[in-house]
Write a structure and sequence with these properties.
8 helices, about 85% helix
C-alpha cells in the first residue's frame, strides 16, 4: 500500500514540476514578446495558460485521490495540502503571464526599451518561479527562503519602473498611454513575484509545518537589531 502511495507522491512531484515549467514558459514567452514587440508571440501565450489551467485541475484531482484513498502521515499530509495551495498561485502566474501578453499588441510594436527594469523584472520572476518549484520537489527550505527574500529585488525593480515611467510621461505627454501600459505590465510581473513567494512559503510549511510571512518576520528581526 505504501509503495503505491509513494508512486503517487512521485507523480505529484512530477506534475508540480511540469506545471512550474509551464509557468516559466508563460513568463519567458511574454517577456520575449515584449522585448521583440511581437504581437504574434504574445498570441501564443494563451495556449500555454490553458495547459496550466488543465494541470491545476489534474493535480487537484490527484491530491484529493491521495487524501481520500490513502492515509497520509503528517509530513505527507503537509506535502499534499501545500501542493493544493501552490497550484492556485501557479495558476494565477499563468493568468498574469497571459494578461501581460494581452497588453503587448497595444504597445504598437514598441519594446519597452525606455524602461530596462521591466525586462529585469521578467528575469527575476522567472528565477523565483523556477526556484520555488525546485524547492518544493527537493524539500529545500533554504532555497524556499531565498525565494522569499528575493521578492524584495522584484519590488525594488517595480519602484524603479514607476519612477522611470513618471519621467517619461512628464517629458513626453504623447507617450502617456504607452507608459501606463508598461506600468501595468510591470505590476503583473510584481504580482507574479508575490505568487512565487506564496509558493515558497507553502514549501516551508510542507517541510516544517510552519506557515507564516517570512518576509515580515525578517523585517521584524532587522528592526529589532536597529
Amino acid at each position: 500500500m505504501r509503495s503505491k502511495f509513494d508512486k503517487q507522491l512521485a507523480q505529484l512531484n512530477t506534475e508540480m514540476t511540469q506545471m512550474g515549467a509551464l509557468c516559466e514558459e508563460v513568463i519567458a514567452l511574454a517577456a520575449k514578446a515584449l522585448i521583440s514587440g511581437s504581437a504574434d508571440l504574445a498570441g501564443e501565450v494563451a495556449d500555454i495558460d490553458s495547459k496550466i489551467d488543465r494541470m491545476e485541475r489534474d493535480i487537484e484531482a490527484l491530491c484529493l485521490k491521495l487524501l481520500l484513498q490513502q492515509q497520509p502521515v503528517a509530513r505527507d499530509l503537509r506535502q499534499i495540502s501545500a501542493a493544493l495551495k501552490m497550484i492556485t498561485d501557479l495558476e494565477r502566474i499563468g493568468d498574469q503571464g497571459a494578461d501581460i501578453a494581452e497588453i503587448i499588441p497595444f504597445l504598437g510594436g514598441r519594446t519597452g526599451d525606455e524602461c530596462e527594469s521591466v525586462s529585469l523584472m521578467a528575469k527575476e520572476t522567472i528565477r523565483m518561479v523556477t526556484d520555488s518549484v525546485d524547492a518544493y520537489v527537493k524539500k529545500d527550505v533554504a532555497l524556499a527562503k531565498s525565494v522569499i527574500a528575493h521578492d524584495d529585488a522584484v519590488d525594488e525593480c517595480f519602484v524603479r519602473v514607476k519612477s522611470a515611467l513618471i519621467r517619461l510621461i512628464t517629458e513626453k505627454h504623447e507617450d502617456a498611454e504607452y507608459a501606463l501600459d508598461l506600468l501595468m505590465i510591470a505590476k503583473y510581473f510584481e504580482r507574479i513575484g508575490d505568487h512565487a513567494t506564496n509558493v515558497a512559503e507553502w514549501v516551508v510549511f510542507s517541510v516544517t509545518g510552519i506557515h507564516k510571512d517570512w518576509k515580515e518576520d525578517t523585517q521584524d528581526d532587522e528592526d529589532t537589531e536597529q
